[in-house]
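Dear support,

We are seeing what looks like truncated structure output for some complexes. This example has two components. We would appreciate it if you could run it in full and send us the complete token output so we can diff it against ours.
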Amino acid sequence: MSVNPATTGAQPSGCRRAVAVPVFGSDAMTWLAAWCVALSLLVFVGFLSVLLFFAGQWLVADAPNGSMMTALLDTIERLLLSGGGNGEFNAMLPAIVGTSVVVILMSVLVAPLGVVVAIYLCEYARGTWYTELVRIGMQNLAGVPSIIYGVFGLTFFVYTIGGSLDEWFYADRLPSPTLGSPGLLWAAITLALLTLPTVVVAAEEGLQRIPNSLREGSYALGATRIETIIRVLIPAASPSFITGIILAIARAAGEVAPLMLVGVVKFAPELPVNLQAPFVHLEHKFMHMGFYIFDVANHAALGSGRLGLLCAASLFLVAVILSLNISAIVLRSSLRRRFDSREDI
Amino acid sequence: MSLLTGKELFHYRQRPSVNAVGWSGSNSFFTEDEHNTRRHWALTGNLDNIDLERLFAPVQYVNDAEGAYVWQPLPPALGQAARLSITPLLLGTLKASVFALLLAVPIGVGAAAFVGYFMRPSYRNRIKPVIEMLAAFPTVVLGAVFALLIAPYFLSFMASWLGAMLITPLGIIIAATIWRRLPSANKLESGFSSLPLWLLPLGAMLLLLGGYLGHYVEAQWLNGDLLATLSNAYEFDYQQRNALLVGTALGIAIIPTIFTVAEDAINAVPKPMASGSLALGASQWLSFRTIVFPIAAPGIFAAVLLGFGRAVGETMILLLLSGNAANADWNPLIALRSVAATLAIEMPDAPVEGSHFHVLIVGALALFAISFIVNTLAQLLKRRLTKHRVYTV
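Here is the complete output from our reference environment:
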């Protein structure tokens, strides 16, 4: 707080005055930096409240006579089964089912692959130069725009692999493509590729946090490396694997751009899962929540109900994604606490 | 016979038996002999004649006075080929990203500085995941809400928007200066980490005040319409879907990316280095600016690069907000079309063997190359920072 008269007096005018005013936190720049934090939070909270407000307003808007609760349930039922507004827009349920199916398929594909890659990098190839290379590559892969994955999925999976599969197995149906056109399978594989770095990074972090004493103890008891991995390391690090998969699901559920190239449609006449064998139809196109939102935003004819429908759909997607992320954060921090409290890291 | 640009693609020598020749499609023509029998001929090969010059340099098309950058994948008329100049798309991507960075870098780095350096760890651990959560926010929701709620009013609120942008930082600086003069200023010390919370009402008020002032100035001196007045005076176009709008939404989307990486870099600077300068009498801000910031600078630059990489590849926001008109122009108030949005719209419908598809692949490769270079550079910078930290502590 105090200004040293000796220094200020001796210096020529125009020198930096900030040196002489060491007041904690009173600097304008600090306040500006603090305002940046506040602004970021304000945007976040503002966005959520806008979604909540318009969605809520729309959901209880045309309450006939009954209570608010019945009106709400009514609207939700109508929204899910017969479509938004007064039924002039596609129902949301197929989009929810489509998103779930593609995400589940993706996790089935990405989980084993990601975990195996992480175990290899961490347990077998630790500290080698190509591990570093793979790691840089992985982080690079995580930064590649998602639309590029879509382009890759379309040209490589759909046209190249799908086209060949069609020639080999579905030659009788050609020229109309079966697997050679965008569909559920290719979308799931593309998303799996997109989320692979997420899973690998999270799983690797979990494996690195396991103290070496655990491995050494297992070896001392005569276990081989593979036994150690299966019996000791995988159970110990499994929360981090689950964290990775949850984060992957959260990322995949919000992605729309790559799916526009590999299989999502505005309106699919039937669900990708139904009671006809083989139950999951890998070659079908499907609907997706993110694309549904995009479609509503582009659907000018929907009129005044559009904003409410959009906010309701967005709120649903955001709630799912945010809760997935929160659970991943909680899980990760519990894992950190479990091993960080030990002395022998 | 020149097809498009004055370049001779193939040579047709008329036979005496042929009476008439004409185009019957973009790559087929017919001939008529003396018996009025028509024969159709199809042309194969690289008729669109795509080369680097056509992709990147201005092309002078038939009937045009001068060369231009045109993206028109559907042929404008029979007998003409698609106009596939990729420059307007790349320029659109670049323009949107630059405006996004203009918004996101100050806010992201400022927030990172506060959380990483000034804030108590207990607060930091709570606030960081919240801002990181913004990164998980689906961009399609951001774009859609912007498209419906903000885009229609963006132009009419331009003055208020500019006023708020100008007044808020100014007001905060003034408030900080006043606070320093107050005798009770050191009360703040105890609640310092919660400064953002205290600033929330002040900032919100300043935003409203700035907005109102902007509106007032517009109504008083600018005939009630800032843009119309300015565009009359300086002759520029403006459209509802424009680069500024896209930049705002895109900026919000990349703030968390920039924040996270920059915060990691700032927080990684060893505390004793700053403590030394504090002990010599420097203020917190001074020791941040002169000690911590230079050490963290490579990491902050990496954060900006990663933010740029994310902005370049973002698709849904651009698809919803950019207007998707391929203008090769730096005017921030007209529509643009980005590479990523073009890929999302046109790729599924482009015939696999056509030059349109191949040009789209070129666009995808360009995007990939940009993101690859930017990411690798950022990784190397981050790595250097970690090394630095190991040797100095």
